[in-house]
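user: Here is a favour to ask of a fellow structure person. I have my own habits and do not want them to colour yours. Could you put it straight underneath, so I can go through it closely?

assistant:
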Amino acid sequence: MKHYPKEIAHKTFEKKMMGYDPDEVADYLNIVGAQLEALLQERSALKEALKDKEMSILEYRDRDQVLKATITSASQMSDKMRADAEREAKLIINDAQQKAEMITRDAKDSLRKTYQDIADLKKMKMQFEANLRAMTQAHLSLLEQGDSFMPKMRLPDLDMK
């Protein structure tokens, strides 16, 4: 049977000749003492459990802070890696554009030179043809002059029998 504070405060003992019954008082005090001891043990156990829970909470808070710091660090590293990758990509693109411009410029220069070579060859061909015509004309003229200075000769008919 549990005793509550109001019951303890209002507890009355039977009176005997010289006061209260010592056995009844002793029994009551033993019961109250046992209950008080149980309550103190329960309180101590609850305090220990509370202390364990508070330690767990502190551990979880520490873990939470470590996780937050890790996430923040990972996020910063990710941002840095992204920025580095973007910068590297821009450098690669710029280098590729410069190489492409150089290749295009070299190709245009080569094409221009090829066109110039073709034009030079056409001029040389025209000069060669003009020189050949002039030589041919000169030879024809010499042949015509040679016919006018030289009488036409007839070759004798040789009968070969």
Notes: The first helix runs from residue 5 to 9.
